[in-house]
Design brief:
- A hairpin with a 2-residue loop joins strand 12 and strand 13.
- The two termini are 17 Å apart.
- The protein has no helices and 20 strands.
- The protein is globular, with a radius of gyration of 18 Å.
- With 257 residues, it is mainly β.
- The chain has a four-stranded antiparallel β-sheet with strand order 3-4-5-6, with no helix packed on it. Strands 7-8-9-10 form a four-stranded antiparallel β-sheet, with no helix packed on it. Strands 11-12-13-14 form a four-stranded antiparallel β-sheet, with no helix packed on it.
- The relative contact order is 0.09.
């Protein structure tokens, strides 16, 4: 992404890869400009992509046929409000909907693309659904788990979690994940989460190391953070960024070190 352009590839079920990266902009009739942040999600049999250009959110879709939506769509143009300049964005598929969260001035804003292609008519401020406000979010991640959408963010090095239920209601307060654990690795600088079956799994970076925990189907949490490096026979060095995804019954993790 050094030039701000989006490149795409595919790993096939047989383990082979698409033979070359494809430039997404070459499939679109418009070009919003240089992307500074990007997220993607599977929704049904499509890949949906959301990215930040100049603080605004742009969206496109790769259809099951392999064709792309013919133009990037500006999400703000579908909404009746505009929270301001987005610095960070994440998205996840929940059923046949795409749910999007972005950070503006440390606050978390949410919208939905419905199965019929329409968007929620306004961005919603997640903090306004909660009885507490942890402070300014520095990083955010999200995941679909069953019919619920989970959000995990970093505030002052701590991990906070909330849920949007299938009914559209929210958990009534952000929960501090560290309060559920018997250990505290220290100040988190980056976080990612994924649904694996009916569990939410979370990975985060603390002083270059990767720490992991799980929210169980019952709503309880694993009783302590686990150090991923302690499970590995090698150590690549200090991780600066992490991302994860649920693939069947496995959690797969990729990090920059």
């Amino acid at each position: 992404m050094s030039t701000g352009r989006l490149w795409h590839t595919i790993r096939n079920p047989n383990g082979s890869w698409q033979t070359f990266f494809g430039l997404i902009e070459s499939q679109e009739q418009n070009n919003p400009g240089a992307f500074t942040d990007i997220s993607c999600a599977g929704v049904g049999n499509e890949c949906q992509v959301v990215g930040v250009v100049g603080g605004r959110l742009w969206h496109t879709i790769r259809h099951a046929s392999g064709t792309w939506q013919n133009a990037f769509g500006l999400i703000e143009s579908q909404e009746q409000n505009n929270p301001g300049a987005f610095a960070d964005v994440r998205c996840a598929g929940v059923g046949n909907e795409l749910q999007v969260v972005g950070a503006v001035g440390g606050q978390l804003w949410h919208t939905i693309r419905h199965a019929n292609g329409t968007w929620q008519n306004a961005f919603g401020l997640i903090e306004s659904q909660e009885q507490n406000n942890p402070g300014a979010f520095a990083d955010v991640s999200c995941a679909g788990v069953g019919t619920e959408w989970h959000v995990v963010g970093v505030v002052g090095g701590k991990l906070w979690h909330t849920i949007r239920h299938a009914s559209g209601t929210w958990q009534n307060a952000f929960g501090l994940i560290e309060a559920q654990e018997q250990n505290n690795p220290g100040a988190f600088t980056d976080v990612s989460c994924a649904g694996v079956g009916n569990q939410l799994q979370v990975a985060g970076v603390v002083s270059g190391q990767l720490w992991h925990t799980i929210r169980n189907t019952t709503g309880t949490w694993q009783n302590s953070f686990g150090l991923i490096e302690a499970q590995e026979q090698n150590n690549p060095g200090a991780f600066a960024d992490v991302s994860c995804a649920g693939v069947g019954t496995q959690l797969q993790i990729v990090g920059i070190a």
